[in-house]
Amino acid sequence: MPQNQSFRVTPLPECAVVITGGTSGVGLAAALHFAAAGVRRFALLGRDPARGQAARETVLRHAPEAQVEFIAADAGDAAQAQQAGERAQALLGGIDVLVNSTAADFTPELLHNTPLERIAPILAQQLLPPLHMSRVVLPWMRAQRGGVILNIASDAAKVATPGESVIGAGMAGIVMFSRTLAMEGKRDGVRVNALTPSLIGGTPLYDRIMAAEFSGKLFAKAARLAHLGVAQPDDLAALIVFLASPQAARLTGQAISLNGGISAA
User: Fold this and answer.
1) What Cα–Cα distance (Å) separates residue 204 from each residue in 24, 114, 193, 208, 245?
2) Where are the beta strands (DSSP E) in the chain?
3) Is residue 3 in some structural domain?
4) CB count, 10 Å around CB of 207?
5) β-bridge partners, 97
6) pTM for the whole thing?
7) Distance (Å, rounded) from C-alpha 227 to C-alpha 162?
8) How does pLDDT run across 207-223, given as a tens digit for each residue?
9) Which residues, in sequence order, are CB contacts of 26 under 8 Å at separation 6+?
């Protein structure tokens, strides 16, 4: 098929960016990096209004002239995801970039120690937010002949690790979803990639993982393999901004491990 020159590849300063899970951790770091790259239209989605307002004020301190909206929503709920997407679309006048960076509340645990009733919530909390939000924005991106969707998963999608049987299943689901959506979206100029970090230092999830007896021992070993250093939110944010930029206009369907060398052991 001939290369289609009608796709919309929007310079970052002209982009409207929506970040699910944008009130802390990687999501908030990404918002700050986008602001530094000239983005001036944001919608930050999260469940906690107080944290959302604090995140909004943080971004505004870095870019006082920006439009920064906070939208309270649980993207794991289909109706709330739809309403949040529609509100973001209306407030920003469009959506060019969607970053799905929600963090689960669960830590690694061997399957035989995992209560049966916890399995469905673990999978739902990981899988549903990026699937819901991608489904909401995809028709708009197809109609405008361009857009970027970036989903944060983890290396548990690629490497079998004791204690991550359920978590790994959810993360693998995000990666396969992202790759398949990239195939579905490329003919309309929609790029989809996944980021698969291992540990992310300086986050509440990192603190919970390292404080728990089982996962603390497991990931202490992993951290020792990160000879380039354990990834930080700013590391992920810098890669997110690159993947959303015109410089990555021909990169789609990838799952990129940013983990300080853990997977290069």
Assistant:
1) 9, 21, 24, 6, 28
2) 16-20, 41-46, 67-72, 97-100, 147-152, 190-195, 255-256
3) no
4) 11
5) 17, 148
6) 0.94
7) 22
8) 888 888 888 887 788 78
9) 101, 103, 152, 200, 203, 233, 236, 237, 240
Q: Which of 76, 97, 89 is nearest to 30 (CA)?
A: 97
Question: What is the per-residue pLDDT across 141-182, written as a single tens digit (0 to 9) for each?
Answer: 999 999 999 999 999 899 998 999 999 999 999 999 999 999
Whether 264 is covered by a domain: the verdict is no
pLDDT digits (tens, 9 = 90+) for 40-88: 999 999 999 999 999 999 999 999 999 999 999 999 999 999 999 999 9
**Backbone phi and psi for residue 106, each to the nearest 5 degrees, phi listed first:** -100, 145
Taking a C-beta distance cutoff of 8 angstroms, is the pair 95, 137 a contact? yes
CATH number for 100 = 3.40.50.720
Q: Where are the alpha helices (DSSP H) in 186-232?
A: 204-211, 213-225
Count of the separate structural domains present in the chain = 1
- Across all residues in the chain, what is the average pLDDT? 93
